[in-house]
Write a structure and sequence with these properties.
Layout lengths: L2 H27 L3 H4 L9 H12 L2 E6 L2 E6 L3 E7 L3 H15 L2 E8 L2 H17 L5 E6 L2
Parallel strand pairs: 3-4, 4-5
Antiparallel strand pairs: 1-2, 2-3
């Protein structure tokens, strides 16, 4: 076998092994699920749940404000919808969008596994209470 063909064969084998390893890591850990739809077909992206909640609450979706876009704006609330593990990001966004829309800020966390992720909802409310921030919160269990 020529050196050129031998080199190509080794490269193909190495790339194949890397692909197999990445596949097993992703399926076992859920790595990248939020970004590429994940190993579980029933998981939807954040935009899906925002649209669903906006429909239920009678709000507008992705309302542009200075410095960003509020996920949902109703007559009374500027609502930030966020995955539970990103609860810290939601606080600043909700406060800013409430200020920019002249509405009360609100946060709704998306929880995939209540047993594992409800702690984030508790952390969010503990931080708000400690900082004496009056902000309505809630969560939505998603599959």
């Amino acid at each position: 076998m020529s050196k050129k063909r031998n080199w190509k064969l080794k490269l193909i084998v190495k790339l194949g092994l890397i692909g197999v390893v990445l596949f097993f890591v992703k399926t076992k850990t859920g790595w990248l699920d939020d970004y590429v739809g994940g190993g579980k077909a029933e998981h939807k992206n954040e935009a899906y749940y925002i649209a669903q909640l906006a429909d239920e609450l009678g709000g507008d979706v992705e309302v542009t404000v200075k410095g960003g876009r509020a996920d949902i704006v109703t007559d009374n609330h500027a609502i930030e919808v966020e995955w539970a593990s990103k609860w810290k990001n939601a606080i600043g966004q909700a406060l800013w969008y409430g200020l920019e829309t002249d509405r009360a800020p609100r946060i709704i966390l998306l929880i995939k596994d209540k047993k594992k992720e409800y702690k984030y909802f508790l952390m969010l409310n503990s931080a708000l209470q400690r900082a004496n921030i009056d902000l309505k919160t809630g969560f939505r269990e998603v599959n």
